[in-house]
Amino acid sequence: MSTKRPIEYAIQSCETMMRKFEAADLPPKIRFHYHQGVFLSGMYKTYAICKDERYFDYIKNWLDSVVDETGAVLGQVGIQMDDMQPGILLYPMIDRFDDPRYVKALEFLIKQFDDYPKIASGGLWHKDRYPSQMWLDGLYMGGPIQAEYAKRYNSPKHTDFVVKQVELMCENTKDCTTGLWYHAWDESRAETWSDPETGRSPEFWGRSIGWVPVAILDDLDFIDKTHPGYDILSQIVVDLIKSVCKYQSTKGRWYQVVDKGGEDGNWLETSCSSLFVAAICKAVRLGLLGKSYLEYAKKGFEGVINSLEYSGEDILIGNVCVGTGVGDYKHYCGRPTSVNDLHGVGAFLLMCAEAEQVL
Predict the structure, then answer these.
(1) Model-level pTM?
(2) Which fold has domain 6-358?
(3) How far apart are CA 182 and CA 173, in angstroms?
(4) 180-190: string of b/e by CB count within 10 Å (b at 16+)?
(5) Where are the domains of the chain?
(6) What is the DSSP letter of 224?
(7) CA distances in angstroms from 50 to 110, 159, 325, listed in the order given
(8) Is 137 designated active site?
(9) Banded model confidence at residue 231, pLDDT cuts 50, 70, 90
(10) Residue 39 in contact with residue 342, Cβ under 8 Å?
(11) Which residues contact 181 (CB under 8 A, 6 or more apart)?
(12) Choosing from 137, 186, 218, 259, which is the catalytic residue?
């Protein structure tokens, strides 16, 4: 059993990372990228609870290293969803500072979605070098920033766009038997991994699925309940979370390939487990799931906490899959793991912030 409140683990993790990196040195350095974005999003949610201004300052210091004095965003590489997500961090800066740089940077990012390459039905490509492909990760990279923009700036077209992206992803990646979503979908069927009939990738990769409910629940924070998309997205996210819960291991965490627990080579992965717990907690908090689902969250939280290691004052979050492309079962199971990489720490912080509010 954990002996501390969830927020205490989050604080310890933030302190660990701040000792390791100056904000501007977060890897990849001078890159506007979701690695930093998810970590700092988790740090911001931690800040919102504990109100330690050092965390807010740390986030600002990173943004100031990648947004120049004219408001230009530095370090985007090509056209890819991964380099859009950190824009969510601009909103608290806009709220606090009378600095046009942050507004200019936000407008620059939002405008990119207008010209971003799309499949025939309007879904966003994951990257320009992956034409005609939608990946689950993209819902987290591009959804919440647009949903919040729509709410703040009264831009209903962005709300409609966010809803459409979720519906398209669900339509093209959801498996009707398990209720889980495949990692990616290729409209062209050109990729070696794509099913020639459905275009879907062959496996249910944990972290890719984890981004989906976290993203949708963040979207719902900014979609009016009278909007038809609110009920649509609510039902989609509830169905997915219920399906995910069926595959929780006896140790609380979820497997790298979610539906194949116990098969040769598969292993318990920390970042997807953290994202699933965060989503369950938030869905309960928003009243979309009954409180009975907190039993899954408690078991998952304890599973993650029991997997942690420590080095002096530092908290070590391990068994985190490094970034990966789309592949088969052997591909996912063979991916290296890391300790305290930004994917894992960010997911862990999101979990702790949500768990603190309901567990």
Answers:
(1) 0.98
(2) Glycosyltransferase (1.50.10)
(3) 5
(4) bbbbbbbbeee
(5) 6-358
(6) -
(7) 30, 31, 36
(8) yes
(9) very high
(10) yes
(11) 136, 169, 170, 173, 174, 175, 204, 208, 209, 212, 240
(12) 137
